[in-house]
Design brief:
Layout: E1 2-5, E2 16-19, E3 29-39, H1 41-48, E4 70-78, E5 90-94, E6 105-109, E7 113-115, H2 122-126, H3 129-138, E8 147-151, H4 156-167, E9 171-176, H5 181-187, E10 191-194, E11 206-211, H6 218-223, E12 225-233, H7 238-255, E13 258-261, H8 268-279, E14 287-292, H9 296-304, E15 311-315
């Protein structure tokens, strides 16, 4: 099968297309013929090996030669202990533990997969597992009348989070680069901020801040919270994450303004509610661009450089 592989951390140029053996599913695994795989920031981190946590399991070299976790496709084979799926059924899920989505076939634990709704295309379904899980969990506490800020609101998880916060009735401020301001407005943002020209931590106090690109010290984030407010970060620099988990937690105990790292839970029960909201017409999936398998390096660069508005997808059919 054709797959995009790499053997060392680095820029997109370290990737190449190779013919490699089709993997065989283990006892509780499923072999998926991949129809579409969406690109996440975690793929970019896995490619470059930064921040440092991206090297967990592979300090000097990548633990998996093929990136790509959010897959959608058809069941091509099932392991001896797999009972939930039959050959030919359409499935989707987040295969973060094994990766392998930037290829014609990928092996995934059956517990990571769900039946794909017929109302969604493979490309649309592939956008949901990781990004929608983050968005649903990150905005779960949003309520009507609250002031919510989302840093990185123009990207994959951010575009879902912005819509979910608006659906909850919150007043939403979206933060991203200037090229995404109109996109965030179209998604329903009440206010938009270009982080390159304005410091969102000095623009007011918020009841909830969901930070998808945390790179600063704890104190500006703490300053941006209203009394009883909450700051949650997903991803970012190791220094910032450690600061939020330690100094941020202490500040929260002293002031009532809580800061923490969002422990994102994985699995179908955490992303299928988003699919249901998409089918109901409440939640929009925006695919900025679709690339063929040969252009995975270009797709990763597009996401890693912060240019993607919504999701980017690799299509194989």
């Amino acid at each position: 099968m054709r797959a995009v592989v790499y053997d060392r951390y680095g820029p997109p140029e370290v990737l190449r297309v190779e013919e490699i053996p089709v993997p065989s599913p283990g006892a509780n695994q499923v072999l998926v013929e991949v129809a579409a795989t969406s690109v996440n920031l975690s793929d970019w981190e896995g490619l470059t090996g930064t921040p440092g946590y991206a090297r967990i399991g592979g300090l000097r070299a990548p633990a998996h030669r093929v990136l790509g976790s959010d897959i959608a496709g058809r069941v091509a084979a099932v392991g001896s202990g797999a009972t939930r799926f039959r050959l030919g059924e359409e499935v989707y899920g987040d295969n973060l533990g094994l990766m392998g989505g930037f290829a014609e076939y990928a092996v995934a634990p059956e517990a990571a997969l769900a039946h794909k709704p017929a109302e969604l295309t493979f490309a649309e379904a592939s956008t949901l597992p990781q990004a929608a899980s983050i968005a649903l969990q990150g905005t779960a506490s949003a309520r009507r009348g609250q002031r919510v800020l989302i840093n990185g609101a123009g990207g994959g998880a951010g575009s879902f989070a912005l819509q979910l916060a608006r659906l909850a009735g919150a007043h939403v401020t979206g933060v991203d680069n200037a090229g995404k301001l109109d996109f965030m407005r179209a998604l329903g943002a009440d206010e938009v901020v270009d982080y390159r020209s304005e410091d969102f931590t000095r623009l007011g106090r918020y009841d909830l801040v969901l930070d998808l690109v945390a790179r600063r010290s704890v104190f500006p984030y703490w300053r941006a919270l209203a009394r009883g407010g909450r700051y949650l970060c997903v991803g970012g620099t190791v220094r910032t994450l450690l600061g939020v988990a330690t100094v941020g937690a202490a500040l929260g105990l002293l002031s009532g303004r809580r800061l923490g790292v969002l422990p994102v839970r994985q699995g179908p029960k955490h992303f299928t509610p988003a699919a249901e909201r998409c089918m109901a017409g409440d939640l929009r999936i925006h695919i900025d661009q679709a690339f063929p398998l040969d252009e995975v390096p270009r797709a990763l660069a597009y996401v890693g450089e912060g240019r993607a508005r919504g999701k980017v997808v690799i299509t194989l059919e």
